[in-house]
Amino acid sequence: MSTKPTVRLDFCDFNGIDKNDNFFTRILSREYRVEINDRPDLVIYSKESHLHRMYTCKKLFWTGETIRPDFSVCDYAMTCYYIDDPRHLRFPYYVVGSGCRPEELIKTPGEAETVASSGRGFCAFVISNANPKRAGRRLDFFRRLSRYKPVDSGGKGLNNIGRVIPAGAQAKYDFIREYKFNLCFENKAVEGYTTEKLVEAMWARCIPIYWGNPNVGLEFNTRSFLSLNDYRTEEECLEAIIEIDQDDAKYRSMLAEPYFPGNRVNEYYDDNRVLAFFERILGDPTPPVGRRRRNRFLGRWRLAKGMYT
Questions:
Q1: Domains identified in the chain and CATH numbers
Q2: How far is CA 200 from the centre of its chain?
């Protein structure tokens, strides 16, 4: 009877994470006996603090935001960026950030007709922050689209439905699935940066109205949604939305398009891809960057300085 090798893990600098039960531990538990230990073989850290500087073991930086890895600080990284480096694994946030399972994004025969016949409303919008500095483009597009037909906004920002949709993916799904379209803009347009917003609209079988990652077509079938990147102007995109809303055949045709080429989820949902990356990390004999003499003392000095200034 084979025994799984033990891997000692720790997590830090996350904004709330269950160290014993999370995406990483579930993946690793397939091949390893995972032990949470304050003297780990590998620490997985994010962006919320600087405690990772205290560790001298191997370090994996993970973020769902647009923060590039600094390989003078971390040994490996998982981010949204397209980085050609064996120390990096591209891992877009939508894989873990949405509430749906990958198989729920696969279209089934006849579902387009079912959705089209369900009497959905026009368009839903969910936003928590209506600060123009952070969300100016989506706010402007919301107002422009609302001149054609009212767009129902259920979040804390620009709320116009008389109640606020509770936080959480399921509550958002239950709200937006009653609409034909969902306005889902990213905070910024950065290559590779695709969050849960697009995927959650797909999960609810809305037609996403998307702005963000200019390379989104590398991962999703752009015939299944409306991307501002595909139009010369916002006015052209608005005209396309109106045309689809008023033409039932075009609406049904877009609903029938698979979200992924070949109606198969893309490579980023493959757990084996992530597991292979971890196997490479754990088998790497290269001394960790945190064990280099200069980094060891400099990291602790910076951490102490940050605590008392």
A1: 6-95+268-307 (3.40.50.11650), 107-263 (3.40.50.11660)
A2: 10
DSSP state of 233: S
- In angstroms, what CA-CA distances link 243 with 37, 151, 239, 240? 58, 16, 6, 5
Phi, psi of 148 (to 5 degrees): -80, -55
- Quote helix, strand, coil % in the chain, to nearest 5: 40, 15, 45
The alpha-helical segments, DSSP class H, found in the chain are 23-28, 94-97, 111-116, 132-146, 169-176, 196-203, 234-246, 248-256, 271-283, 293-307
3 state SS of 94: helix
Q: 276: number of CA atoms within 13 Å, CB side? A: 9
pLDDT value at 296 more than 60:
no
* pLDDT tens per residue across span 258-286: 999 999 999 999 999 999 999 999 999 99
Q: Is pLDDT of 168 > 60?
A: yes
Using alpha carbons, select from 159, 136, 158 the residue that is nearest to residue 234: 136
- Which range of 95-99, 202-206, 291-295 scores highest in mean pLDDT? It is 202-206
